[in-house]
Amino acid sequence: PKRDYKTLVLDILITGDSSVTGDKAENDAKIAKFSEHLRSELQDKTRFNIINDAESLDKIKAADDKQDLHNCNGCEITLAKELGAELVVVPNVFRMSHLISTLHVEFKDANTGKLIKRKAYDFRGNTDQAWERAIKYAMRDLKDWDRN
Question: Is 0.85 surpassed by the pTM of this model?
Answer without folding.
Answer: yes
